[in-house]
Amino acid sequence: xxxxxxxxxxxxxxxxxxxxxxxxxxxxxxxxxxxxxxxxxxxxxxxxxxxxxxxxxxxxxxxxxxxxxxxxxxxxxxxxxxxxxxxxxxxxxxxxxxxxxxxxxxxxxxxxxxxxxxxxxxxxxxxxxxxxxxxxxxxxxxxxxxxxxxxxxxxxxxxxxxxxxxxxxxxxxxxxxxxxxxxxxxxxxxxxxxxxxxxxxxxxxxxxxxxxxxxxxxxxxxxxxxxxxxxxxxxxxxxxxxxxxxxxxxxxxxxxxxxxxxxxxxxxxxxxxxxxxxxxxxxxxxxxxxxxxxxxxxxxxxxxxxxxxxxxxxxxxxxxxxxxxxxxxxxxxxxxxxxxxxxxxxxxxxxxxxxxxxxxxxxxxxxxxxxxxxxxxxxxxxxxxxxxxxxxxxxxxxxxxxxxxxxxxxxxxxxxxxxxxxxxxxxxxxxxxxxxxxxxxxxxxxxxxxxxxxxxxxxxxxxxxxxxxxxxxxxxxxxxxxxxxxxxxxxxxxxxxxxxxxxxxxxxxxxxxxxxxxxxxxxxxxxxxxxxxxxxxxxxxxxxxxxxxxxxxxxxxxxxxxxxxxxxxxxxxxxxxxxxxxxxxxxxxxxxxxxxxxxxxxxxxxxxxxxxxxxxxxxxxxxxxxxxxxxxxxxxxxxxxxxxxxxxxxxxxxxxxxxxxxxxxxxxxxxxxxxxxxxxxxxxxxxxxxxxxxxxxxxxxxx
Length: 703
Ligand code: CAA
What we know:
single chain, alpha/beta, eight-stranded mixed sheet, 29 helices, 11% strand, binds acetoacetyl-coenzyme A, (3S)-3-hydroxyacyl-CoA dehydrogenase (NAD+) activity, 3-hydroxyacyl-CoA dehydrogenase, NAD(P)-bd_dom_sf, oxidoreductase, lipid degradation
């Protein structure tokens, strides 16, 4: 028997252990080995029942994602066919679920007649996150086990459930006492089944899964969710598959699921989401840094500044059980900051997301202070003070004096020169940028800015710590705005300029939300603060001095005190949570266009799309060429997790590849020619883009 599967007999039982570390992904070789083992057990008259388990303690994380989109995905034995074969073995199969049963892993367990799980195991059908639906019977067998509505919710959410929950839902028949006794208890269970003369497959609990559903359930559900799903394909296919489970006999339902699955697998959206899956794992690998490098211990953190950002940053550590000191200059600012944190936690308690006891525990981990002496023993200090280089440098001079040797000194700057901040200390090797996104306790992205002299162990430690506090860290080099805000600059510039030329903010934003961005760029600036954006521009204004139209609309709104949502006026007018078009903005744009002699006209959606997105993409490619980003997929992660770029488009770099790099280059050159002096000044293709197209390359990579 191949090493991918362990096979052993225990009396009348055949124990079959999946052994393909790290997660028993059900790629073709493992499927073949599993089938062979099961056939052997089926054919052996001495075997009365089969216990299927993960030989390394973990059951299975599902199909091998790297096979999707290639022939290997459906190479014999394919997973759906293999599972149908298991359901036809006339001996009871018990799935002993350790650690994880996800996707095809859970479907494998569902094909077994009986399931037992250990207390730490988690179960789920996360295919939706990959733009897929369960494609090995999950959409047909799960509704028959737990009812159509529960199955639909579980598959659409993609969330994992714990064993207690899975037991209550009816997915698990039994709970083992602990991981160590799982296999033994699975064997006991199998013997009991044999003693009872239990059938190989028990009768379905919900032979008609739709039995409890109200009339018109599916049409109603679809209508309710349409807007939220935007243009996503997978949720619609999931719904169709569950509907099929309700309407068709099992065999036909399985065939229908196959059709729907193939449609999903072949879609651009699934390719994009699979790209994102691997991008997230790749982001943690830093060339030249040994993963086995010794980390610096982080037992205590300090945050300088108790403003919205500082408070949010501190919450991340308290949430992860790490003590954190928040330092402020004045006691009223400190009290305000800490009570904001408390209020945030209280909202979570009210929403049922946090217990009162947990709130109290987290607040106990947060200590306020007015004295730098209190942070002398911190292992990591994160500065979150006003975004001005001189102020931040002053803070770092003080940190250099008070902090213990070896402490990591981080700045939360969103754009400033981390090398210039590090340079005022006597220990630049300990300085790094940690750019949290607002709200810092919610947003998953963390830009980790590696300064020129940042030590490898400082980088490695912060990357590991970021994962510990639930963030997705992406490494950036030093430049104005790093990866995210530097790309935002030309993107926002074009949006503002197009309003001068005659588009309304709603038109510009509408094109962007039309391709499923969470928010148009102008709405985003209103949310982030037109004042904040203005001040960032001031810090870099020499770079744009030769264009009098440069972000003029933003400057003018700033001068008028229209700071966006916080002042109820910005690119839009806000009444409560409602965003309305503002005729004043139109008038201001008209006046500025007159002053700058910019002719006004109507702009087609395609032009809006190309000007915003091609400039975004072009800047990303330039960043890669400069080595600010390590890889194109890192840029995608920044924009998906920090700026609401839809994951099902794969991020701006992947989107550009889907559009065709030659198309992007042609578009930029066309705009360069058609937009007069504006086009000449700004629509310059990145040299790397030109090189890639000239070489006939279709992927964005440095070369
Ligand atoms: N296929 C291929 N590789 C996988 C995999 C899968 N299903 N799941 C994890 N891996 C790989 C990862 O790429 C990673 O590889 P590297 O070390 O080379 O980067 C390694 O396993 C460990 O994964 P993580 O770094 O993510 O480790 P973790 O402990 O943080 O998380 C996990 C483990 C929860 C299983 C997570 O990897 C995960 O969520 N995996 C995806 C699970 C999933 O979506 N399953 C459904 C697949 S689709 C399907 O099954 C369709 C169907 O119906 C037939």
